[in-house]
Amino acid sequence: MDFSVFEKIMYNNESKLIVIGVDGLSRSGKTTYVNMVEKFLVDNHIDHVCLHLDDFIETRSKRYNTGFEEWEEYYFLQWNAEKLRKDMFEQLRNSTFLKLQFYDGEKDVQIPKDVNIPSTGCILIEGVFLQRKEWKDYFDYVIYLNCDRETRFRRESELTQSRLEKFKKRYWKAEDYYLMNVNPEESADYIINT
């Protein structure tokens, strides 16, 4: 996976706090890429914090069986986009720490935790749909990991692949909405094909 893009960003922004988004659809390689980035940041003694969008999803009662179509639940209700904008994105450059609601999937609750924000270095945020209108203006750079649907689906476990209807009704329709209405490849600063 091409890592030169991230190195270029960091070397051009020394002594500043920059916010970098790693966007991409499910199974496009975001976690793998972010793990590489974090190793680079640690090895180079660069202060950073990494935020994973999936840590901030809503409880099941707010995102399932709501009366909306499944894809709408996934795109519009999986996260409280406005609350995240207010509590996280708007505060990234103004705070030394954030108090955020982290999702505990086992208990299906959100638990408040403090996140320390460095004064210089990098805030790395990874997740799907990062360039949606509520959040896109808070990034200095966005890296979009581009991967076709068939390849991404093959990366799922056999059990997950057996739930094809859920992909058709929930995930893929939401992805299509994002691709059509946000056009993340065009609005990203860098594209990495994975």
Automatic annotation (TrEMBL):
Pfam families, A to Z: PRK
Keywords of this entry: Kinase, Transferase
Entry annotated with the keyword Transport: no
One of the record's GO molecular function terms: ATP binding
InterPro entries linked to this entry: P-loop_NTPase, PRK/URK
Coiled-coil blocks: none
Record keyword Nucleotide-binding present: no
Every Phosphoribulokinase/uridine kinase domain range: 19-155
Name the UniProt record assigns to this protein: Uridine kinase
